[in-house]
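Private note to self, pasted from the team thread so I don't lose it. Backbone tokens:
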């Protein structure tokens, strides 16, 4: 989960491109509908095992423009429908909100916390940078409701007593924290949720720059823009970026040994975002206690405008 989260963070930091002097154009009251799709293929090798996993995720998104001024726009996003699949050695998992399939799936079901939750982003029109995110608290609340606190249980007597039960029924412990409360707070922290929208909305700066790979990663990648396209790679003369997932007594660290990707973003002449797409391949060397792990990741993504309803006059 942590390795996949770090890859999603990298993916979220990659953006499509347009001349930064143009910027986004929004009109208060307009409504847009986008489809966002991501596919991740992973090859995992360790101790003689060679495993392959494929995960796909598709969001149908609404984007309502609540307010616009000269510098920024306030956008309200909702996931109208979501579909996800995961294929690995243990079999296939499927989640489909429209068909009401997989909502209790142990691997994919928690994605349902995004369904229909209004997430508000305040976006800089010139850069596409997400300056503020609101609504993430509901994501935390939903995940905690899916995984409530442990319950006080009392074993039943061997036979039904002839008088009212001496054992109280099972009740939720009001003082116990939900088992995933800390994970939920971390996973849905504003700076983490923001990167999902940064991926879709950011606009380029000129030339070549350093690309942060996340707050916990030591080292960076290089990002280069040419027109509406970008490319990404590692500086061959710099140390490999590293991520420390855990320390003693069970240390786990990851080195990014190879990274290469490209993509683009397209806005029409009015400044309306039409598509953003890209792909990258990344090799990881994982040191988990005394067991080494090699991973190869290939990720592709796209965001496509499906419909736009102008604001009413």
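Design output:
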């Amino acid at each position: 989960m942590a390795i996949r989260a770090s890859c999603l963070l990298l993916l979220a930091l990659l953006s499509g491109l347009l001349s930064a002097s143009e910027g986004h154009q929004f009109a208060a009251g307009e409504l847009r509908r986008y489809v966002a799709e991501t596919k991740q293929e992973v090859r995992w090798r360790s101790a003689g095992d060679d495993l392959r996993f494929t995960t796909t995720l598709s969001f149908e998104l609404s984007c309502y423009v609540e307010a616009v001024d000269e510098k920024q726009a306030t956008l309200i996003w909702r996931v109208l429908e979501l579909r996800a699949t995961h294929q690995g050695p243990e079999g296939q998992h499927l989640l489909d909100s429209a068909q009401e399939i997989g909502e209790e799936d142990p691997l994919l079901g928690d994605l349902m916390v995004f369904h229909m939750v209004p997430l508000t982003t305040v976006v800089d029109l010139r850069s596409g940078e997400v300056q503020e995110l609101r609504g993430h608290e509901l994501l935390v609340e939903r995940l905690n409701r899916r995984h409530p606190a442990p319950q006080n249980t009392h074993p039943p007597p061997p036979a039904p007593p002839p008088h009212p039960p001496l054992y109280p029924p099972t009740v939720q412990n009001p003082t116990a924290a939900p088992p995933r409360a800390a994970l939920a707070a971390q996973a849905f922290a504003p700076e983490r949720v923001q990167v999902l929208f940064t991926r879709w909305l950011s606009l380029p700066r000129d030339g070549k720059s350093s690309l942060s790979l996340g707050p916990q990663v030591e080292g960076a990648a290089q990002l280069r823009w040419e027109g509406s396209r970008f490319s990404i790679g590692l500086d061959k003369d710099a140390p490999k970026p590293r991520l420390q997932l855990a320390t003693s007594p069970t240390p786990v660290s990851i080195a990014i040994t190879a990274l290469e990707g490209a993509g683009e973003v397209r806005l029409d002449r009015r400044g309306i975002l039409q598509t953003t797409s890209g792909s990258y391949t990344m090799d990881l060397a994982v040191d988990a206690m005394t067991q080494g792990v090699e991973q190869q990741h290939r990720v592709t993504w796209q965001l496509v405008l499906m419909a736009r309803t102008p604001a009413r006059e």
